[in-house]
## 1
Amino acid sequence: MAHYTIRDRDMEKREKLYTLWGEDKINEKEMGLLRQKTKDIPAPFDAAGGKDIKTLVEAFLERDDAFGLAAPQIGISKRVTVFKNKNLYDREPVTSERDYDVLVNPRITQFRGETEIMMEGCLSCPDINVEVERYTEIKVKAYNIKGQKISRRYTGFLARVVQHECDHLDGKLIIDRGSRIQYPKEKEEFFNSIFQMGS
Ligand SMILES: [Zn+2]
């Protein structure tokens, strides 16, 4: 899940980010991967799984524009995600491993409490924000980065971030979740053609 505005588009030395569309066209191949349901990483983690986890965490730590990142967003179709667990709106890159959670093979086991509607952005859906309804409390079972089984409870905005990231692992994106989609006026024609909302 992304900050609403992306401050820094200089991605030169970063892991390539998979997006549904570019400036003026759909990215068919990247869309195929983003739309795919990911595979579990074998536990205990094998070498390939460990490498994928490390690649994702490093890609996340390089960025200052993401609350979280899911493996498909860098082209890895595996069930792993990483996200900030505090100070979500700080625009400094995360450095301490206490400040982010890595969930391997996460499953949301409970949705609780109220639902809340909020605008969400996503690095894989550039230039748009979508109004998405999410639960305000969830419970998750997963493995942590060390391969230990964990249970976590997330509430409030963090619960939203985790639901967003877990959606990625099921091949779902914000455009599948929301009805109201916002995009800049100057890109109206392009997005109208994608979402078939215009005449
Ligand atoms: Zn996203």
Note: DSSP finds five helices and six strands in the chain.
## 2
Amino acid sequence: MGKAFDIGLEALTGVRVSNRAGVDRATTGDLSDAEKRPVGHPPEGNGQTFYLETFGCQMNEHDSEKVAGVLLARGYRQVESVEAADVVLYNTCSIREKAAQKVFSRLGEWRPEVVRARVEEAAQHTRFSEAETQIPFSKTEGEAPRAPSKQDQQPAMGGPMNGHAISDSAYQGTKTAGRTEVARPAVRREKVIGVLGCVAQQEGEKIFARAPWVSLVCGSASYRRLPELIRELERGNRRVTGLDTDTDETFETEITRRDNPWRAYLTIIEGCDKACSYCVVPFTRGPERSRTSAAILEEVRQLADAGYTEVQLLGQTVNSYKDPSARKMRFSELLVGVAEVPGIRRVRFTTSHPRDFGKDIVEAIEAVPAICEHVHLPVQSGSTRVLRVMARTYSREEYLEKIALIRGAKRAISVTTDLIVGFPGETENDFGETLSLLDAVQYDGAFCFKYSPRPNTPSLKMEEDAIPEEEKARRLAVLIEKQREIQRARNEKLVGETLEVLVEGKSKKLHPAGIRVSQWSGHTSSNKVMNFTSRREESLGDYVRVKVTGVTPNSLIGEVASDD
Ligand code: SF4
């Protein structure tokens, strides 16, 4: 799911019209926890549990996989509900106002009076049927549903983790019994609440004033210090912060808990030096820092050994990668190096910055079939005047030169983008240029957003030129509609073609004859979502050849090719 402002945002409040995002887990079946694979070997448990909720982009999703790895390495166990957790972490996003608000609303759920109300509500339901004590209050990793354990039932008299904790017995559940009732044991547990990521960096210690029950505030540029911060919490420190952005280090972990069993994400460059006038990322994630090519290739080898066939290299500006080692591997060479690791069948990368996008990347895609035929190249506006005010460092014409490189390739490469409408001062003429850019480029997908002013950004001072909300909404609707038409037309050109698809999901669909048939889904190399049928039972994680028989603006429809 990679997503916007060069960091891919479809998980946010923008509107998704692209095929670029991941398969919808709701329609394809969630992965079981057992399917989520940590790379590395978690040690014995320490009896403590954590819950981690992630907001925002793919970079955040992957940061969370690594944060989870840090905790697993310390013996914590991940659980899927806040109620069952000793440590509750929110990995936050502040790229749009709504995303930041969501985090404070989550923190509000830990306000003492709210917790008290939950406790009281739970106390009113102290008698449960024997059967209901089996209800999975916490369905934990790879486990069948379980009843509260002996450990769950201990009174909250402090535990190994004595941060600024919240006693919460609300997770006793509220269901009442219908059958043989037994007294439900009092369940109390202390919780540590932590805020990670962009909102943590942006708000800093102000979070403690707004939500005094929070114990940990840590921005992503300080994640390398997480083991030390967690140690401080374990020692009973009530307020722990990691807010330093002045670093040249990257976040390396021994263990990464991966949420997708087929596609492994790998951050190769952190931070951003580009300073676009609307973007909080340089402020929240710090300067660009690249990992060494040797460390990246070693991780890819480990992933291949663990059974992954697809890797996606991540960075806010992934193609600005600069190998800090003596090897000085260029980004395009790194792509080839990753693709050549035995067992790796697909290599993706996101997000590219137009300024650093060169012919060598196109040549690498042309030469190496394992490098996927897809480039996400955010343009943000079709107007050179607006691009200049956005400080995007390229003009419309320069951007179109990069597109010409891609379109001139020997392989057909799909192109997707991010677009912002209603940037301060954007005239009707500027907006018209964005629409005409869609005609010129013919994107395969676009993530379209209304401009949203963010703290600490230069464009915040341009509010006198602000575009009214209704006008922003109108422009967004026009843009989306136009892009939908383009996508449908581009997808229609693929009808009759046979494309390779990684099988990532399965769902049941009602056939016109009234019988339920299995429908499968996955992505093509060009990152289009393919929903397809097959006469046989497919295996998730396999690659199959699918003939395109129909389209929607956002996906292809097909059936497994008869000769496959
Ligand atoms: S500042 Fe960096 S992350 Fe933000 S939009 Fe610009 S290039 Fe992308």
Note: The first helix runs from residue 25 to 28.
